[in-house]
Write a structure and sequence with these properties.
The structure holds two protein chains of two kinds. Chain A contains ten helices and 14 strands. Chain A is α/β, with parallel strands linked by helices. In chain A, the strands form four sheets. A six-stranded mixed beta sheet of chain A has the order 5-6-7-3-8-9, sandwiched between helices. Chain A has a three-stranded antiparallel beta sheet with strand order 2-1-4. Chain B is mostly helical. Chain B is built from ten helices and no strands. In chain B, helix 2 packs parallel to helix 7, helix 6 packs antiparallel against helix 7 and helix 7 crosses helix 8. Chain B is globular, with a radius of gyration of 20 Å. In chain B, 34% of the residues are buried. The chains are: A alpha/beta, B mainly alpha. Chains A and B meet through strand 1, helix 2 and helix 3 of A and helix 1 and helix 5 of B.
Chain lengths: 294, 238
Amino acid sequence: MTEAAVSIEDLHVRYGRIRALEGLDMRVPAGGVTGLLGRNGAGKTTTIRAILGLVHPEKGEVRVLGSPPSRATRERISVLFAEHGLVPEMTLMENLVCWGMINSLRRAEARSRAEAVLHALGTLHSAAAPVRELSSGNMRLAGLARAFMLPRDLVLLDEPTASLDPVRAEEIRAGIRELAGRSAVLLSTHNLVEAEELCDRVVIIHDGRKLAGGTPEELSEPGDVHLVRTEDGDASFRGNEYTPDARGFVRIDSGVSAADTLAELVREGNRVVEFRPERKSLSQTFLELAEEER
Amino acid sequence: MIAGLALREMYHTARSMGKAGLVRFLLVYVGLLGMLIPWQMGIPEVAIMIFGLLPLYIAGPAGVDAFAGERDRSTLETLLASPVSPGQLLAGKLMFCSGFALMATWVAMGVYSLTSVLSGRPLPGPLPYVAAIVLGVLTAVLSGLAGMTVSLKARSARSSQQWYSLVLVGVAVGLPLLARALLPHVPQALKDAVVSAFAGGWVSLGSLGVLAILLLAIAALGGSLKVRMRRLWIMNGG
């Protein structure tokens, strides 16, 4: 097994009396995109801070790129928090040049990297504008430009596509996919559709603990709900008549396996054309898990 | 890294002040403090020492924004997530606030000297100039550190400015009052010793003592600030 980019074991972190993480276990593989899902206050930001070594754990262990979090590991990490992290009064270019220099680049190199990343994100026209004058979407892009301008082994992104229009959001998702070929990406998001589309693995956390983890497919395993299409359109099941949806499918919540459900449908005289278990979306899985925990 | 931090502070200050703010700043520090007040002092050797103390009023206020301002702008966490060390962060921010104060002071000193020559007023000799420059560097660093120390603890830039103003008033008013209260109780022998220590003028045991005291204060304040700055990286307070 290759070494994980991030490995967290039994991590407990608290802010005074508030317990933010309570025995969190999770792993971010060395490549690809790992989604970190959870409701507000679930512990996502604290997890990112723990990876950066910005919180003192009460108990547990964090290893980042093979070592405990430190200044040396921060040299290999890029992060975009919920805030863009840029000085609002300064222009976007000034911000990026200074950020490059803070990260050990020479001024000329920082400027050329900044120009390249702004060009790639299609925001070169905003380079001379003060950050505070940018639209919220362009501010998010500016934050992403800062996070993407330096090559890093691990990239931590908190809601990267928030405030972006759908076209920009899709461009950024494509950028993240490309980035995941070179770096490990940890994506904290509320956007479950985005997580399903973008993430190779997903970790769902709630109240500082991991509720579930796996690939989006694993987390959306079929349950006891099945979709059936009959020759007549309608379907009868256990004495009830069901009408099809717009796609022609009848949704049957049988509470038993697919084989038993199909056998029952056939016994009741339905002429089944198509039958398949309904796969839950990641959103459904997430909402069910969150509901169970309430 | 340090140059990047200092450049970031410089851009931020320049952009925050704007052109109008920069003109106001030049009028006050270069015009009023750089010419009018030194001229009013009469004695050139005393007037030049204004430029040894002027950085107190620039470096300190610039330093109070160092961390509290980052908190206000929500940029502190991103900065802490970068590979900078506490020492580099301290050096970068101090380089800007001291450098900015010294630049303004030395420009004011140049204007004072030029206008004195043009108007036929007497200028002090080279030693008072050297003393004012050395004192200026020390007060710039010391007040920058003092401002940053206040900023480290303050929750916002406004509260940081208020606390620094209180510290400044305390030093400016409290110290003379304390000296006045204590002076009658100081033994005459000690008073005589202090006076004789400064008998050599600009280069004397007394002036070297002042230099040593300022250097010690800088070392103590800088060391303590660097240690306390490490706590910034522990956002849950350890």
